[in-house]
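DM from R.C. (forwarded with permission)

"hey, sorry to bug you on a friday — could you get me a structure for this? deadline for the figure draft is monday and I only need the backbone to look sensible"
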Amino acid sequence: MLSLKVPLRDAERARRALVDSSLLDRDYVVDKDKQHIFFPLTREPPANFMESSWSVVEHPHNKLAGSECRGLKFPAMDIVGTIAIIEGSEEEARKIAPLIVKCIPSVETVLRKAGPMEGQFRTRKFFHVFGKETMETVYKENGVRISLDVSKTYFSPRLSTERARIAALVRKGENVAVLFGGVAPFALVIAKKCPSCNIISVELNEDAHSYAVKNIELNKFTNVKALHMDVKELKRADKYKGWADRIIMPLPKDVVSFLDVAAYMARPGATLHIYIFASSPKEALSLLATKLDELNVGWEHMGTRECGNYSPTTSRYVVDIKLL
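My reply, with the result:
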């Protein structure tokens, strides 16, 4: 059977891409060996879908799933490690949750969103629906392991491709600052890609910071430091004035009010990757340009990419800017 063969480290990213492109054949189960995972395909992927370590192969060991799984259309969900997160009513969730656990081999727990993200730390409450009663898991992405509690920390698996993109841009020996670093996913992926880089991940949420420290140890990285502090306090740290070659700011709702910190930390020629909510790429750049000009900072626009939806009229954009 036609299958996509990917390294285990890319499993979740590949699965999400296949689902988004309607390429995953849900009538068959996913197989794996010690190094690779095999996804059954509905058709051959286009050339621009593939990554260098992915390949399309004939894999004879994909087995037909049970009758409950064949042709089943799952609702939209996020899979974070062994946890599937769904939306909808309690009745709908309890009906579909056992099938999610049965038909998706990696899932042990199904949670239902109890409401929107809340508070300064963008956390969310969940209802346990089915399976193992836990909010904690280990998520694997881009060759790193990320431990977290989904109810106590902010984390988006939907940014996995974006984290890989940023890591690929980093050059040897760079000083990289990740502001609002959470459980340190950006820092970890960059550390894996660039062992010679010096990276700091700054986070105020005590729970997220604790997981960041744990994740640095879990991945045995010595080139990452987790800082538990308010990002604004960095302007009082002489050590980090003009320190950073690259600054990542994944706080799309309030990021404009922290651009002064980035300007303080940046070396001449530094690159900023700024995440922001806006109705269009033009608005995203305009919001940032106004503040940067107020700060009397010379800058050059390197590009803008959409990387997620916030509402029907608002998207999450990342704007790449070089400071002059």
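R.C.: lifesaver. The first helix runs from residue 11 to 20.
me: no worries. The mean pLDDT is 92.
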